[in-house]
Amino acid sequence: MRVGVLGGGQLARMMALAGHPLGLEFAFLDPSADACAFPLGHALHGAYDDPAKLDELADFADVVTFEFENVPAAVTDRLSARVPVYPPGGALAVAQDRFVEKTLFRELGIDTADFRAVDSEVDLAAAAEELGYPLVLKTRSEGYDGKGQQVVRSAEQLASAWQAIGGRPLIAEAFVSFTREVSVVAVRSRDGEVHCYPLAENQHEDGILTVSRSQPADLIEGAAQDAAQRLLTHLEYVGVLALELFDCGGELQANEFAPRVHNSGHWTIEGATVSQFENHLRAVCGLPLGATDARGRVAMLNLIGQLPPVAPLLSLPDVHVHLYGKRARPGRKIGHLTTWAEDEATLADRFAEVCTHVGREPASVG
Length: 366
Fold this sequence. Notes:
The protein is of the alpha+beta class. It is about 30% helix and about 30% strand. The chain folds into 3 domains: about 1-85, Rossmann fold, CATH 3.40.50.20; about 115-175, Dna Ligase, domain 1, CATH 3.30.1490; about 180-365, ATP-grasp fold, B domain (D-amino Acid Aminotransferase, Chain A, domain 1).
C-alpha cells in the first residue's frame, strides 16, 4: 500500500520508519527542499496547495495522511475527491481554530479554562474584565510550540499584547494554575475501534516540549482516556490523536488536541507494544490496530537547538537516540532520546545520568 503524507518533517520520517517493515511505501509533500523525511520515500518539493504536486501525490497514494495540522482545508478537500484522507477534514478544521476547539470540548463535557473570542481591543478589555488576570491571549490559528501567545498580567499590558499578536482572530483564556501538564495519545480505526496509550506527563520550556514520561496506571489516566475517546468518536476520527490537558489537583482541563502523531507520544517507540506511528498507519490503511500497553517506564528528552555528543549516550543502558537529519538551529527539534527501565526508581537514576551527559540539571527534568 502507498501512503501520501502532507509534510516531510520528523513526524513523517518516523511514520515511514514504522511503515517500511509493514511493506508500506511513502511519498511526502513539503515546501522545504531538505525535508528530513524525503530520503525515506518519493520526495515532492512544493507548496501544500500546489495543484500539480497535489495531483502527483494523489496519483501515487492509496491513502493520504498528514503530520502538520496547519494544512489549508482546501488541500484536503481537493485530495479527498480522489483518494481517502485520514484523519478527516472535519477534525482538521476543529483543531485549526482554538475557539471552535474549546467550544467542542465544552459540548462534549470536557472541562476547559474559561475563554472568550477576541476580535478587537474592545473585546480584549471586556474579556480581561470577565476572566481576570493573568490571562493568556492566543491566536485562534497557526500557533504551536508557544508561538502566537502572550500572557497578560495586568491592564497595563493589554495594549502591548494586542500590538504583538492582534489584528487577527484571537482567543483569551483564563490562566490555569495546574499541578502538571499531561497528555493522552489515542488511536481510532476505520471501523471505530479505539485504543488509548497510558498517560504521559510533560514538561515545557519556552512553550516547547522538553520531557515526556510515561505514567501507566496514573490515577487520572482513566478520565483522560475517556475524554480522548469521546473526542475521537464525535469526530468520526481515523488515526492517532493527542489530547493535551492540565492536571489541576486531580481535576482535568483540556488545553488542545493535535490531529496527528505527537511529540509526547515518542516514548511509545520503545515503551509500548506498538508505537503511535505504526498504529497511526494501521488505522489510516485499514489494518488491525496493535496493542497500546506500556512496556516498563520511559522518559523522552527532546534534543533542541544542538546535538550533544552521541557516543557517550549510547554507552548508557537502555538509552535510544533518534536523530532527525535536520540542520541545527536555536529552538529547533533535531532529535530525541528515550531512557527505558522496568520500574520508576531505576528510570529516575538512568534519566539523571542522561541529563548529566547532555548538560542538564537532573532536578529540572525529573
